Amino acid sequence: MAQQRGNASGLQLALCVLCGLPGAGKTTAAQALSRFLRKSHGWKCVLLSYDDLIPLEAFSQSEASSGQISQWKLHRHELLFYLEHFLQTFIKGNHYCPPPNRIETIWKSFACCLKDQGLISSPAGTDDCASCQYLIDFSFLRPIYFILDDNFYYRSMRYEVYQLARQYNLGFCQLFLDCQTEVCLERNCQRNQPLPEEIIYAMLQKIEAPNPEKYTWEQNSLILNGAELSLEDNLQVFDLLSTALENPVKRLEENLELKEMDRTICATSVLHQADQTIRQAVSQAMKNAKGSNLSPSAMKNLAEELSKLKLEFLEDLRHKPTGKQQFPQNNTFDKSIITAFNQQADDIVKKYSTA
């Protein structure tokens, strides 16, 4: 029997990162795993497939494009923010409202995903996934697993999910599908909208498999053969998921290796400060624009432009060299960043105000 949750909801919650190359069989594995856990063990599984949640046009921009920020990366960051926003509300037992300063297209996909899987519902008479408030279904007391289906080829991408589990005292585990490149390429060709082969080869050069011996936070990990995978009768997989659920990540875990990983992954606390400060700036800019009597469609377009600008600033900050100017010893970000953001945000607002 799994132990009682350490969060305020009293529910057992866990995150499972399902990672590997495109075509490794992640989506098929996620669906099979969800069916198996619901049918055999009565667990609630929520599938978050990044391929379905991120707009297709975000994948069209080459990661190697000079001077450009990948929209795919920006959307991944936004999805994780929406997941954290949901977990905060869920654990506190509150009604679920849309987060501020959101990108409507990706937010609607995320909200509809939760609604379609029975985790939230709209009040009577409202069907708009993007704008209405939601009533979270607390009627079930069974364990809930959020299965994140994405490539997660960098360890740092998976570590962001681990940090989320640590922040909210959730279970955490990883399933890494190791599959021959030829098999991945063949499966990719069979998709309705295959990825360019050069993207798969680029990921192959960068992909980082779990290494529990070096990184203790990856101890709840399995490397599976994606070409010959059967999850429905795989006791090893179920044992991993059970172990992660029964042993949620401790919030104040003292671990030297984790501290080293925190330093390696580009000053998360600084990025969090920047994120919060820039979100406040976006909110203020929207309030200022509202006083200009802009049309609803103009306000919507303005919100999307400001959200895009915010993501670009955060992504740029994330990938700057970790020198003293960006990440000083007192863990505060360079205030000139918010000044530059406000200047560009003001230019965008003026564009709409004078239109």
What is the domain total for the residues? 2
What's the CATH H-level homologous superfamily of the largest domain? P-loop containing nucleotide triphosphate hydrolases
* Main sheet summary: 5 strands, parallel
CATH topology of the largest domain: Rossmann fold
Strand runs, count: 7
Q: Which percent bin holds the helix content?
A: 40-55%
Signal peptide: 1-29
GO biological process, one term: selenocysteine incorporation
Keywords: ATP-binding, Nucleotide-binding, Signal
GO molecular function: ATP binding; L-seryl-tRNA(Sec) kinase activity; tRNA binding
Give your account of this protein's structure.
It is a single chain. This protein is of the alpha/beta class. The protein has two domains: 13-259, Rossmann fold (3-Layer(aba) Sandwich); 266-353, no CATH class. Helix content is 48%, strand content 10%. Mean pLDDT is 79; it is low at 1-6, 62-69 and 322-331.
Question: What's the helix and strand layout?
Answer:
Layout: E1 13-20, H1 26-41, E2 44-49, H2 50-53, H3 71-92, H4 104-116, E3 120-121, E4 135-136, E5 144-149, H5 155-167, E6 171-178, H6 181-189, H7 197-206, E7 221-225, H8 235-246, H9 256-264, H10 268-290, H11 296-318, H12 336-353
Helix pairs in contact: 3-11, 6-7, 10-11, 10-12, 11-12
InterPro entries: KTI12/PSTK, L-seryl-tRNA_Sec_kinase_euk, P-loop_NTPase, Ser-tRNA(Sec)_kinase
Signal peptide: 1-29
Keywords: ATP-binding, Nucleotide-binding, Signal
